[in-house]
Amino acid sequence: MNQNLTKFLKISTFCVGGLVLCSLNASVAKAETVVGEKAVAGITVPLERYSEVSEAVKNKEIELADQYNYTNLGIANVENHLNIRQKPGEDQKIIGKLPKNAGCTILETDDNGWAKIKSGKVTGYVMSSYLITGNEAVALAKKVGGVVATVNTTTLNVRAEAGLLSKVITSVPIGEEFEVLDFDDEWVKIGVDQDKGYVSRQYVDLTYELIKGVSVEETVTGVSGIRAQIVAYAKQFVGNRYVWGGNSLTNGTDCSGFVHLIYRNFGYSIARQSTSLSHNGTRINPSSVKPGDLVFYGNGSSINHVAMYIGNGQIVHASTTRTGIKISNMYYRNPITAVRIIND
Questions:
Q1: Which residue intervals of 197-254 are DSSP H helices?
Q2: Would 137 be classed as within a structural domain?
Q3: How many CB atoms lie within 10 A of CB 150?
Q4: Are 79 and 156 in the same domain?
Q5: Helix axes 2-12, 50-65, angle to 10 degrees
Q6: Of the candidates 181, 209, 237, which is a domain's last residue?
Q7: What whole-number distance in Å separates Cα of residue 131 and Cα of residue 159?
Q8: Is residue 322 part of a domain?
Q9: Could you write out the three-class secondary structure of 58-90?
């Protein structure tokens, strides 16, 4: 599989007018009939046949170059993250975070050092001095970008090995994005938090992307008091780094360390490891969670990841080294159980 990933990276970073992002998916080669988890006639053109589709890829790159070129591509040049504000000004409300090496489209700049940007689902203002632009941004994008798999079917099984008879370790919904670790013509190896698994290639679109900005605007409704305080505190650290075994909300921590440190700030003593943490508090059905409750995920029934529910169907969690602390749909993968720490 590694040779395919290397070829994908080379093709994806082929520049036309400063382009750094492109895809090899259904826009290049359409899938034919799909049965179960295996295509009857494949979904994408194998990368070995690049010469046959190079013109189509080139056209795709030219199209995208209008959006990502030397003048409006920006990459966050910070140690941790760059605050995205609602309006220009350091006293303005923070609505998102642009992590280190995350990419954005620069929409406009002003004479006071502010740039209006769009990254992911966030549009707002950042200090221009913290953005790498022009040729330097294009060169950096080739180094720090990665291959991402976006689910294009309602629900997709993630398997322990590459094969239809292999164990299903979790399921993921349409629209979710996962880091690609490797792939071949039929299977894609992805990272799901700290798990690794395989998905059928025809049910994902592969693209070469930079990290995106993350929104912190999500509001907590129907809750007050300690729950609202805990959620608000946790969201302050969105965009910060994931570090396995780390114990710092600002310099890096892992999934269980994140919720452990959040609760410790409010005087609660809970376990540091996710499996042990699942035995703290009161077990509840994931469908009954309130903001501040903990949601657990894993491989089959084996717990290895924990997140905090923040309301509106969303969680905040320390996910991977690539994405850091982020906000996700609670059902970005199947939750195993949930725990209530706050007795109210």
A1: 225-235
A2: no
A3: 17
A4: no
A5: 40
A6: 209
A7: 39
A8: yes
A9: HHHHHHHHCCCCCCCEEEECCCCEEEEECCCCC
Instruction: Compare 70 and 41 and report the one with higher pLDDT.
Output: 70
| H/E segment holding residue 143 | helix 134-144
Q: Among the three residues 209, 234, 262, which one is the final residue of a domain in this structure?
A: 209
- Specify the amino acid at residue 204: V
Q: Record the tokens describing residue 253, joined without a space.
A: 């921590």
The answer to whether residues 61 and 162 belong to one domain is yes
Residue 50: pLDDT above 60? no
CA distance 202 to 66: 28
Domain match, 200 and 312 both: no
Q: What is the dihedral of CA 261, 264, 270, 272, to 10 degrees?
A: 30
Q: Which residue type does 41 have? A: A
Residue 158 lies in a domain: yes
CA dist 301 and 303 (Å) reads 6
Local confidence band at 221 (pLDDT 50, 70, 90 cut-offs): low
- DSSP letters of 248-277? ETTTEE-HHHHHHHHHHHTT----SSHHHH
User: For residue 234, which of 270, 273, 260, 271 has the smallest C-alpha distance?
Assistant: 260
Which residue type does 55 have? E
Contact indicator for 212, 120 with CB cutoff of 8 Å:
yes
Q: What is the pTM of this model?
A: 0.72
- CATH number of domain containing 20: 2.30.30.40
Paired strand residues for 147: 208
Specify whether 77 is located in the same domain as 63. Answer: no
Residue 328 lies in a domain: yes
Q: Which domain holds residue 87?
A: 73-132
Instruction: State the CATH number of the domain containing residue 272.
Output: 3.90.1720.10
Number of structural domains (the chain) is 3
The b/e string for 68-96 (b: 16+ C-beta within 10 A; e otherwise) is bbbebbbbbbbebbbbbbeebeeeeebbb
pLDDT in tens, 226-239: 999 999 999 999 98
